[in-house]
Amino acid sequence: MNDVKRLLEVAQEKGALKFGEFQLSAGGTSTYYFDGRILTLDPEGAFLVAKCLLPILISNEIDAIAGPTLGADPIVSSLSLYSHIQNNPITGLIVRKEAKAYGGKRAIEGSYTPGMKVAVVDDTCTSGSSLFHAIDIVESSGCKVEIVLSILDRKAGGSDELLRRGYRFQSLLSADETGNIHTL
After folding, report:
1. What does pLDDT average to over the chain?
2. Is residue 70 left, alpha or beta, with left meaning phi > 0 and alpha meaning psi from -120 to 50?
3. Distances (CA, A) of 116 to 70, 73, 82, 119, 149
4. pTM higher than 0.85, yes or no?
């Protein structure tokens, strides 16, 4: 079985897809909700996400994977670990909502250097606002965003805006307005 198809099965088995009336963090409401953390905090789900995304990172010669806290935290961690196991280590970075007000006052957690080629990732792309926040922080640190990734593209404008702004975007799954999720 294809790993992306199995990933969708795990998402359904674990209850990561819910139906009802939901307020979205990107604004607005939806008749369905995809809780990516249910998937990415599950052992098999985390493994499958890393296994599906790592070839994309390798083919784009990515130095680091970064994403907005909290949705991207388990994705970044599982990918970084899996990349090491596969003898192709990729650094993990977490982008804070706001820079720390104490200590090193960092907006990005993890080890990076300007010029690194970075992939920005999140569990879901709706409006793209959390992805754009992470992109802005990564680019302001002197790194280059090579590709933007998500597990699920809700097809709610975010992926179109990423492409309009010149970013390459790839998602493992896509959804229509009724919550039917498809593998790509």
Report:
1. 93
2. alpha
3. 23, 19, 20, 10, 17
4. yes
Measuring CA to CA, which residue among 110, 80, 95 is closest to residue 140?
A: 95
Round to whole Å and give the CA distance between 157 and 124.
Answer: 12
Structural domain boundaries in the chain: 3-183
C-alpha pair distances (Å), 180 with each of 19, 44, 87, 154, 155: 11, 22, 36, 10, 11
CATH number of 3-183: 3.40.50.2020
d(CA 7, CA 47): 9
Quote the CA–CA distance of 100 and 107 in Å, as a whole number: 7
Grouping H, G, I as helix, E, B as strand and the rest as coil, residue 96 is: coil
pLDDT of 129-159, one tens digit each?
999 999 999 999 999 999 999 999 999 999 9
pLDDT in tens, 29-44: 888 889 999 999 999 9
CA of residue 55 relative to chain centroid, distance: 15
Q: Is 20 helix (H, G, I), strand (E, B) or coil?
A: strand
